[in-house]
Amino acid sequence: MESQASKQRPRQHKTLIAPSLLSANFLCLKEEIAKVEAAGADWLHLDVMDGHFVPNISYGPMIVGFVRQATDLYLDAHLMVEYPENLLDAFVRAGADNITVHAEAEGVSANTLKTIRNLGVDAGISINPETPLDALDPYWDLVDLILVMSVHPGFGGQSFIEDSLEKVNRISERIQRDKLPILIEIDGGIGIDNAARVRSAGADVLVAGSSIFRAADSSAALSEIRNAADSSLTSPKK
């Protein structure tokens, strides 16, 4: 069965923009969500941190449930947690459409991805900047999305790691060669200055937090990032 994510595969269409709620103002979260939805956001990216896999703690299923009540957008839950299998059912019940786990996290295996799919949502695997691509080897046939971290996970506002482009490009080549129905997502330091380059490298979904929510005009910022990314579709790949 084709996943919800792969149905939105935009190789020859618009880029998918996924504002990261970690950078939103939680005092007025409903208004922040409405603002980016009106601006044309495709997904909402939800960074879940447990204080173990990464040093910070963010939020859990209860907040995801509130977000689900506020929007019909595709909810992209990124679990930066150890032993995510203990939490999968709770996030599905809260309304997540996709659950991405980390290849580096304790307890993550092929069974984790199978469980996510069996719960009726899309499954993703993420790799950190220092993680080699062979960490993906057990998962190519089990995921709808691969998330490449272009910063070290756990903190917002970091600078983009340039080596991420080569990683995205190599993943894209494998997906195209084997005709795999997998989206490539990139998260970390994404903005107007690098949107075209990451899209040209093969990224389908751009996660942007600070560059959208902390911009003077978040609607304009989202549009500028999308337009820059889409412009790469008709430009020669560099």
Question: What's this entry about, in short?
Answer:
This protein has helices spanning 4-7, 29-38, 61-70, 88-94, 110-118, 164-178, 195-201, 210-213, 218-231; strands at residues 16-19, 43-49, 74-80, 98-102, 122-127, 145-149, 183-187, 205-208. The protein is an alpha/beta fold. It has a single domain, classed as Alpha-Beta Barrel (TIM Barrel).
What does this structure look like?
With 238 residues, the chain is of the alpha/beta class. It has one domain: Alpha-Beta Barrel (TIM Barrel). It contains 9 helices and 8 strands. It has helices spanning 4-7, 29-38, 61-70, 88-94, 110-118, 164-178, 195-201, 210-213, 218-231; strands at residues 16-19, 43-49, 74-80, 98-102, 122-127, 145-149, 183-187, 205-208. Strands 1-8-7-6-5-4-3-2 form an 8-stranded parallel sheet. Strand 2, helix 3 (61-70) and strand 3 form a beta-alpha-beta unit. Helix 3 runs parallel beside helix 4, helix 6 (164-178) packs parallel to helix 7 and helix 7 packs across helix 9.
Key traits:
alpha/beta, 8-stranded parallel sheet, 9 helices, 238 residues, TIM Barrel
**CATH level-4 homologous superfamily:** Aldolase class I
**CATH 2nd-level architecture:** Alpha-Beta Barrel
CATH fold description: TIM Barrel
Per DSSP, the total helix count is: 9
Write the layout of secondary structure elements.
Elements: H1 4-7, E1 16-19, H2 29-38, E2 43-49, H3 61-70, E3 74-80, H4 88-94, E4 98-102, H5 110-118, E5 122-127, E6 145-149, H6 164-178, E7 183-187, H7 195-201, E8 205-208, H8 210-213, H9 218-231
Parallel strand pairs: 1-8, 2-3, 3-4, 4-5, 5-6, 6-7, 7-8
Helix pairs in contact: 3-4, 6-7, 7-9
